[in-house]
Amino acid sequence: MAIAQPQMVQLNVRVDADVKRQAEEVLELMGSSVTELVRMVLEKVARGARDYVEARDALSDRPRSHLIDVSEGGPLDLDTVDPRLARGWKAVDDLYRGFGIDPSSLPKDDRPWDVIYEEAMDAHFEEKGLLL
C-alpha cells in the first residue's frame, strides 16, 4: 500500500527587499533558508491553531511594556492586548471583588511587565519542550 504524498502549493509573499536579504544572510549562517523558516512557522501554526496568540506574540518584536493592569482602571490598547486577555483580567478582578477582596490591595510585582512576560513565556516554552 503506497503512502499518499502531501499536495504541495506555492506561496508568494511580498516583503521589503532589504529585510529578505538580511533574513537570508542570517538563515544561511544557521544552515536554513527563508523557505524552510516559512514552512516551519506554517506547520507550527497549523498544529497548534488554538495557540495563535502565542505564536503571534512569539514572533512579534513589539515591546510588551505598554500592557497595563486593568485593576488600575486605565484604558487598554486592544491593538496590543488580546481582547481575551483583557476580559480575563477583568474576570479575575470581578472574582476578587465578589469575594470582598479589593484587587488593588493585592501584592504587586515591581518588575517591568516585559521582564515578567519574558520569564513566564520562557517557562511556558520550556514546559512544551521548545526551550532547553
Note down, in words, how this protein is organized.
By secondary structure, this protein is mostly helical. It has helices spanning 17-29, 34-47, 52-59, 83-98, 113-127. It folds into 2 domains: 12-47; 62-132, no CATH class. The chain is built from 5 helices and no strands. It is elongated. The model is unreliable at 63-73 (pLDDT under 50).
* Domains (count): 2
The proportion of residues in beta strands is: under 5%
Shape call:
elongated
From the N-terminal CA to the C-terminal CA, the straight-line distance is 39 Å
Mean residue pLDDT: 76
Number of helices: 5
* Helix-strand category: mainly alpha
- Our Rg estimate from Cα atoms comes to 20 Å
Main beta sheet, described?
A: none
Residue windows where pLDDT falls under 50 for at least 5 positions: 63-73
Q: Specify the oligomeric state.
A: single chain
SS elements, strand count? 0
- Helical fraction equals 40-55%
Question: What letter string, H or E per element, gives the SSE order?
Answer: HHHHH
Short description:
With 132 residues, the chain is mainly alpha-helical.
